[in-house]
Amino acid sequence: MEYPFSESYKIKMVEPLYRSNLQERAQWIKQADYNLFNLKSNQVYIDLLTDSGTGSMSHHQWAAMMQGDESYAGASSYFQLKKAVKEIFGFDYFLPTHQGRAAENVLFSTLVKTGNIIPGNSHFDTTKGHIEFRGAHAIDCTIDEAFDTHADFPFKGNVDIQKLENVFISESADNIPFVILTLTNNTAGGQPVSMQNMREVSILCKKYSIALLYDSARFAENAYFIKLREVEYKNKTIREIVTEMYSYTDMMTMSSKKDGIVNIGGLIGLRSEEIFKKASTFNIMFEGFISYGGMAGRDMSALAVGLNEVLDFNYLETRIKQVEYLGNKLIEAGIPIQKPIGGHAIFVNATEFLVNVPREQFVAQTLAIELYLEAGVRGVEIGTLLADRDPQTRQNRYPRLELLRLAIPRRVYTNNHMDVVAHALIKIFERRNEISSGFEIMEEAPILRHFTVKLKKN
Ligand code: F0G
Q: Which helix (DSSP H) or strand (DSSP E) does residue 168 occupy?
């Protein structure tokens, strides 16, 4: 008989949770204008809003925090992080930033001009926001399999090489400052990009003299999937896989709040000294001096440790098996989710789940609210609210998939919590046909509206 699988760590500190009742939750969500971002954290029992900055640090990371060097310039914590970036990703030039979107802000201020085209694999919302804010356009060249939640394709994060080349042919290379590969592809369901695809994108970019940028928020989870699903990498270590992945790119931005396993932080990695010099000016203006960029010394030290820790196969296996545990329970119950199960989250196909709610009434948001009411579980809509309005026509953009994302924080919840989440969703699934109306917008911001939108019940 095989031994049961168990976690590769034990728990040293705990935080109590409050289990609310339905009446309390109904009142709180109404007061929050049916926007889950407006809830107070103590109104949430199991928080699957994001895996970003919500993980538990290890005792090695906490020990590193205590040794943080808070010098304004030239802190040893900075050099510790610079060393980790060089050793893991191979970049000679690096800038710390306070989080991922700050890295985007600094780098895109340096490289993106009005009218530019930036193709990639489903740009994350802040990435797209920073592109469109500069009057440039993001073009999604993800493979079509990613949009069929039933297709069991192992690398749904991949770029369609033909779609990408078509963009290169129809635009002059001068108008494309870089291509973005998001590892893993968050929007499509935490789906990985294969090594082969990275290689092919890199070759194509070189052919057209266009730079390649990796959005690296979940780079280690991506490497784990390469080890498991691309045969020639079966016997390679995660570190070796990461080294090869980054040999194909010119630049990286990273939200360290995911695979850095820290609560705040970001970074930019570069090979070009020229871009580094230009970006340094923006870093100083927006973030802070180039040797801290909005991070405390202690945060840089914890990140340097986290970047090495995340490469441990046992850590990654524990992490991704927990996501699979929840996903398999939902699949067994017949709940439509993105398959194969992704790295950091479960993505429920809301339009297949709530077939009676009209698309204009925000189906995934409706499901997110049902789940909160049912069990105090907070997920997030990855659908029409997140997709914003078209910048020109101001009409709602209906994305190809309307998803409810349940993002699992790293090293935080147990599988008993996952059982509660599964149970709650199954209960809603059993009464899904009774749910036939959603929500309408009362107030919204012109960009990134999902964070602050106010909704009312239909
Ligand atoms: N890129 C990706 C792929 C992301 O998932 C995120 C953040 C960012 C960039 C921006 O990083 O938050 O540090 O500024 N994703 C979070 C999420 C917010 O919930 O998926 P940030």
A: helix 161-170
Domain residue limits at 394: 22-51+312-457
Instruction: State how far the Cα of 239 lies from the Cα of 246, in Å rounded to an integer.
Output: 11
* Residue 85 is assigned to a structural domain of this protein: yes
Q: Residue 72 catalytic?
A: yes
Q: Quick one: 305 and 316 in the same domain?
A: no
Q: Which CA distances in Å does 444 have to 23, 88, 114, 128, 395?
A: 27, 41, 25, 18, 13
The answer, yes or no, to whether residue 448 has pLDDT greater than 90, is no
If residue 213 lies in a helix (H) or strand (E), which one and from where to where? strand 211-215
| Closest to 58 in 3D by CA, of 355, 314, 284 | 314
Q: What SS3 class is residue 138?
A: strand
Judge whether 124 counts as a catalytic residue. Answer: yes
Average pLDDT, the chain: 96
Residue 45 CA, ligand 1 centroid: distance in Å: 23
Give residues with Cβ within 8 angstroms of 305, minimum separation 6: 58, 60, 61, 64
Q: Which helix (H) or strand (E) holds 314?
A: helix 313-332
Query: Residues with Cβ within 6 A of ligand 1?
Result: 50, 52, 99-101, 124, 126-127, 182, 186, 215, 217, 255, 257, 266, 407
Q: Which residue CA neighbors atom 15 of ligand 1 most closely?
A: 52
Query: Residue 390 above 90 pLDDT?
Result: no
Q: What is the mean pLDDT of the segment spanning 214-239?
A: 98
Q: Cβ of 13: how many Cβ atoms within 10 Å?
A: 8
Residue finishing a domain among 277, 309, 341: 309
Q: How far is the CA of 98 from the centre of ligand 1 (A)?
A: 12
Residue at 212 is within a domain: yes
